[in-house]
Design brief:
about 210 residues, mainly alpha
């Protein structure tokens, strides 16, 4: 029996509800509830978590989504983009103790370090993106946002496959190359992918 909270329930709620939030379609919310519920019930059916473990995972997933929704509000984003880049990295320092608190018990602790390196790449990419495009982009049509989301996810999987297959192996320990890989993936999500979309004319500046 694993500990509290259920990491699968936590991630399922945060990921699928986030996708539904971005798509803003009723069918997306229905699909998200269906998939997340399946994941949560599977943890009970398989006997790897108790009810309280799953409920705690659901609560943390919803809390994560609520914080995300507040942070990506257009007014907050506009103010955040005007802040100095070093603030992005200060957020990582604040995140470290929080991750230690909410990281599911029984899970591989090296995952915490991987998340931190991912955040480092994420915030570094966000800082570089703000420098390249100081003004917030004009959101395109909903279907074009779906195209970018799908294209970005496909690109991320291709990048991950290339990195994990030895694309950055230069004789360093496996753990070091793994951390480098997730850092690059963070850079891709917030800097490389947006730059590609702007080059293709999918994201227009005001």
């Amino acid at each position: 029996m694993r500990g509290l909270p259920s990491g699968h329930a936590q991630v399922a709620i945060a990921m699928w509800f986030w996708l539904a939030y971005e798509m803003k379609r009723r069918w997306a919310w229905v699909a998200a509830v269906f998939i997340a519920a399946g994941v949560c019930f599977s943890r009970l059916y398989l006997g790897v978590h108790d009810v309280e473990d799953v409920l705690a995972g659901i609560a943390l997933g919803l809390l994560s989504l609520a914080v995300f929704a507040a942070l990506v509000h257009e007014n907050v984003v506009a103010r955040w983009r005007r802040l100095p880049a070093w603030i992005d990295f200060a957020v990582i320092l604040v995140t470290i103790p929080l991750l230690w608190i909410i990281w599911p018990q029984g899970e591989d602790p090296t995952g915490i370090a991987s998340v931190l390196f991912l955040l480092f790449g994420w915030f570094a990419g966000a800082a570089l993106d703000r420098k390249a495009a100081p003004q917030a982009p004009v959101l395109p049509a909903w279907w074009l946002r779906i195209v970018m989301a799908v294209g970005g996810i496909v690109g991320l999987f291709i990048l991950r496959a290339g990195l994990m297959s030895g694309g950055i192996t230069i004789g360093l320990p496996e753990a070091i190359t793994g951390y480098a890989a997730v850092t690059i993936m963070g850079l891709y999500a917030t800097w490389i992918a947006p730059a590609i979309f702007r080059t293709l004319g999918l994201m227009k500046q005001p």
